[in-house]
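Please fill in the sequence for the structure shown.

STRUCTURE ENCODING:
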């Protein structure tokens, strides 16, 4: 990560802006399905979040609240973006998994379902 620490170590505004930039880079990588860019953007975002957390903890130890209402709102929006990215990734993964299950069906014995187990139990009482 090539972000510079601001002169005021307790100022989170530049750090929140960096988080937003890295989220945008991750968004772009996800849209283009560029795996190396996803890895890079994720690593940069993780480092940026760690830096912001360190600055927040440092300010809290000094009795300061470094989050203005505007910064708090920006972080809430960033959190919503991350949640959306996670949901999109989960849906894409589920689609890939369904496709793989169609292409490579199970080769093992059929798995009993509740309906077939119920039928076996009913037959056992009949005779």
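FILLED IN BY: designer on duty
SEQUENCE:
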């Amino acid at each position: 990560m090539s972000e510079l620490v601001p002169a005021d170590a307790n100022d989170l505004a530049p750090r929140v802006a960096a988080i937003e930039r890295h989220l945008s880079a991750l968004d772009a990588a996800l849209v283009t399905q560029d795996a190396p860019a996803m890895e890079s953007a994720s690593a940069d975002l993780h480092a940026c979040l760690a830096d912001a957390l360190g600055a927040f903890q440092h300010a809290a130890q000094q009795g300061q609240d470094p989050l203005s209402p505007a910064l708090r709102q920006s972080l809430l929006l960033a959190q919503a973006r991350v949640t959306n990215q996670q949901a999109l990734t989960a849906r894409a993964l589920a689609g890939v998994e369904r496709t793989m299950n169609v292409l490579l069906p199970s080769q093992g014995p059929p798995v009993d379902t509740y309906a077939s187990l119920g039928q076996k139990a009913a037959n056992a009482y009949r005779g």
